[in-house]
Amino acid sequence: MNNISTLNTVPQLLRNVVQTIHSEEDTFLISKEKETWEEISFKTTLEKADAISAYFLEMGINKGDRIGFIIENCPEYVFYDQGLQQIGAINTSIYPTLSETEIEYILLDSGAKTILVGSPFLLKKILKIANHCPELVRIIPIFNDHAKITEKINVNAGIISLDNVISEGKSALPKHVTEIDKRRSQIQPSDISGLIYTSGTTGTPKGVMLTHSNFVENVKVCLQQIPVIDNNETFLSFLPLSHVFERTATYHVCCAMGCKIAFAQSLELLAKNMGEVKPTVMSCVPRLLEKIHDKAIKSGTAAGGTKAKIFIWALESGKKYREIKEAGKTPGILTSIQHGIAEKLVFSKIKEKTGGRLKFMISGGAALPKNVGEFFGDLGIKILEGFGLTETSPVMSVTEYHRQVYGTVGRVIPGIEVGIQDVETKKFINIQTHETFNEEFVCEEGEICVRGHCVMKGYWNKPEETAEIIDEDGWFHTGDVGRFFKGNLQITDRIKNMLVNAFGKNIYPTPVESTYLKSPKIESVFLIGDKREYVTAIITPSRETLQETFKLEDSFFDQSDLFIDDDNIVKWFAEDLKKLSPELAKFERIKNFIVKRNPFSIEEGDITPTMKPKRKVIEKKYIEYIDHMYNAEVSVE
C-alpha cells in the first residue's frame, strides 16, 4: 500500500514508491530517443540522482544553495532535481524562453552556484552572461559535444557535461553515501525546495520560495480530491517543469504515486506523441483544449451533408446523455442506445487521436471557457479544472472527479481557507473550506484570498513585497477576482486587468475575450477600453483558418506591416464579432478592432512565459494603431 500521509519532503516521495509499491526495475520515465521510446527505471533514476548528489558534495554544495536549471522537459531534469533535493539544495528553474537580461537577473538575484543547460541554443545564451554572475561556478550541458561552442569563449565558470558529472559522481559516491543519507534525513518540511520566479507581467520578476511542505501537502490533498489516480497511470508531460503547475500536477504527483512520466518531444509533436504514448492523464492549458475543440468542430462539419449532420447529432446525443448523468439520474434505454451509436461513429474517432486511454485531463493556468468544457464532457473526455498561483504551490481548488460544474475551477482543497474579499471595503464576503462545501452555495464576487499550507514562504530577498501580499493575519491576496458558485470557486478576472470605461463601467476582459474566442477564426483577443468611451480589441487570427479561407501563402505572414488592412479579411472577422456580441452587455461589446498579422510573443516582450499578456506593454507599444482605431468609424454594430 502506497501510504504518503507520513511523508513531508520531496526526496521522500520517490524512495517511498520503491519501498512500498513498485520494484526498482519498473519503468518510471519514458523519453523518445530518435525514433524509439526509451524506458528508464526507478533504479536508474535513483542511481543517477545519487551520483549527482555525490558530485555536488565534492563541489562543496551546502544545504540551501541554489542550483539552476534552464532546460526543456526531459529525464535529465528529474535526475538533477532528485540529486539536489536530497542534499537540501534549492531547485531554481528558469524558463528557457526568457531573454538573456532576464536570465542574468535571476542568476544574480538567486546566487545560483550551478546551472543545468538543455541545448546548444540555451548554452550560447548562458555563455553570454556567465561572467556577469560571480556566484556561478559550474555550467553543466546535458549534451557532450559542447566543446565546439565553448572552446573559443573565455568564461570564468567551469564547464562539464552531465554525463561526466554522473561519471565523476559515481566514483565519489562510496565516500558520500552516509552523508547523502544524513542530509536527506535532516531536511525539514519548512526548508525551501524550489525557487520559482514569477512571470513579471508588471515590474521585476520575484523569486517565490516554495517549501518541501508546500509541494508535498499540495500533492497529498490533490490526490485526496482526485482519488481515481493510481500507480498504473501514464502521464504525458509537455507543459514546462520550470512552472509550478506541471511540477506539482505531473512530476510530484508521479513521484508520490509511482506513475510513469512520458516526455513529449515538443508542442508541435504533441498530437503525434499522444497517439504513440497513449497517456491516461495529462496536465494542459485552456488554449490547447480550445484548439482541439475548434479543430474537431471544423473537421466534423467541413464536409457538410450527411457527415456533418451525424456529427452534430452525435454532439446533441452526448450532451443529453451527459446532463442526465450529471443530474444523478440513469439515462433511459433510447438515450443510452443513441449515445452508444454516437460513441461508435464519432466520439471514439476523436478519442483515438488522444491515444484512446485518457481518464481525464487537468486544465490550469487560466479559466477554461464553459462551452469548451461542456464539449469535452459531451464526448466523454473528462476535464478537471484547477486554480492557483505560483505563490500557492499552486493548487487552491480543483474539480472533483465525480462532480463537474462547468465554468468553475472546483472545490477548495482540504486544509486551507479561501476567502472572497470586497475589493473596496476589504471586508470578507465569505470564507470557505473543504468541509463547508455546499453544492447550492453562491456568493458575490470579490478578491480571492487564501490562507493555509499552500501559501509560499515568501519572496526571495524581498521582505517588503512579501508583507504587501501576505497580510498580518496570514491571508495571501491573489489579485484574482471571483466568487463561489454551486459551492465551487469561479474566476472572473485579475484585478489589475479590470478596465473602467469613460462612463465608470467596470469591465473584466477575460470573460469578454472568452466569448469572442468561440469564433474558430480567432486565435486571441486583447481587449482595450480603459478610460475610453467604448471597447475595442487587437485580434490575432487562427493562421490555419485564415490561410485556408483566403488561399494565402506563408509569405503573407512575413510581411513587414504589423496589422492586416485587407477589407475582405476585416469584414470576415466582423461577421463573427457581430454574431457573438449579443451574448454580452452593451458596454462590453467590441465596437472596433484591428487584426495583428502574427501572435503576441515572448521574444517581443508582449507576453510572459506563461502566455499572459503584459497589458501596459502592449497598450504602450501599439498606441499609434490603437488611437487610429478610436479615430476611425465603428466597424462592429
Write structural notes for this entry.
This protein is of the alpha/beta class and 637 residues long. The chain has three domains: 10-187 and 226-280, 3-Layer(aba) Sandwich (Rossmann fold); 284-356 and 358-496, Rossmann fold; 498-631, 2-Layer Sandwich (GMP Synthetase, Chain A, domain 3), CATH 3.30.300.30. 39% of the residues lie in helices and 21% in strands. The chain is built from 20 helices and 28 strands. The protein has a nine-stranded mixed beta sheet with strand order 2-1-11-10-12-13-14-15-16, with helices on both faces. α1 (10-20) runs parallel beside α9 (244-257) and α2 (42-59) crosses α3. The protein is globular, with a radius of gyration of 25 Å. The model has no long low-confidence stretch (mean pLDDT 94).
Keywords:
637 residues; alpha/beta; Rossmann fold; GMP Synthetase, Chain A, domain 3; nine-stranded mixed β-sheet
List the helices and strands and how they pair.
Layout: H1 10-20, E1 27-33, E2 36-41, H2 42-59, E3 66-70, H3 75-85, E4 90-93, H4 100-110, E5 114-117, H5 120-129, E6 138-141, H6 147-150, E7 158-159, H7 162-186, E8 192-197, E9 207-211, H8 212-225, E10 234-237, H9 244-257, E11 260-263, H10 270-277, E12 281-284, H11 286-301, H12 305-326, H13 333-352, E13 360-363, H14 370-379, E14 382-388, E15 395-398, E16 411-412, E17 416-421, E18 428-432, E19 446-452, E20 458-459, H15 463-469, E21 476-485, E22 488-494, E23 499-500, E24 506-507, H16 509-516, E25 522-528, E26 535-541, H17 543-550, E27 563-564, H18 567-580, E28 590-596, H19 615-621, H20 623-631
Parallel strand pairs: 1-11, 3-4, 3-5, 4-8, 5-6, 6-7, 10-11, 10-12, 12-13, 13-14, 26-28
Antiparallel strand pairs: 1-2, 8-9, 9-20, 14-15, 15-16, 17-18, 17-19, 19-21, 21-22, 23-24, 25-26, 27-28
Helix pairs in contact: 1-9, 2-3, 2-7, 4-5, 8-9, 12-13, 12-14
